[in-house]
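Changelog entry: the Sugar phosphate isomerase/epimerase record was regenerated in this release. Current contents:
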Amino acid sequence: MPRKIIIVTAAYGHERIAALGGQHALLPVIANAGADGVEIRRELFSAVQLDALPELAQQIAEHHLQACYSAPEPLFIENGKLNPLIPSLLLEAHQLNASWLKLSLGHFRSSQQFPLLQQWLAQSDVPLVVENDQTNYGKLAPMQRFQAACNVLNLPVTLTFDMANWLWVDESPEAAARVLAPSVSYIHVKAAVAHHYHYRAIALDEAEPRWLELLKNLPADAPRGIEFPLEGRDLTAVTRHYVNLLREE
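Regenerated structure tokens:
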């Protein structure tokens, strides 16, 4: 079965999405480029658009795309408790008919809150995936502790592996892949170069082949999300180029 390629709407840039009137305007581009799905970003919605998730779900289905939903929220808040927004985020993901909801880890301290999370997940039909972000909580040690706790308690939560975010937190992506790969269900494909005191994401054609070697150490059947910049006059052609590249590699 060919591997699935998901396009993250943020790859087109916030300004372009705003100019087009919203993420729904990118669906024809993504579908015509031959992608399998779209990652919808909560932070790119206006309040009005957030109320129209069922309509967006319908549009995604009409373009024969799979939906996934990303919210810029941590699983655990500062006091180590679960984020109280999770049930409503799961509901939004359900309204979008999303295959999964993606969050960051946040302030994970212990598995004490897992029974409540288990309960919330049991009441939803949307699986949860947790991504390594560009904060200290996205470093390898907390992600590894969380993964181990999920395994011990059989919590049905898997990981999104963002290939470049490790660089932002001074971690080796290769070391992270060796440890976390068995729990990875979704890959954010991204390359980055040093830029001032941080990094910036770049298109794969401009990157060293490190990203390609890294992909070989991650699950071959995990959907691959394109999150690096997709820019150019013909967005469909640019998107199709990278869809084909990632499906073959």
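The two ends are 14 Å apart (CA to CA).
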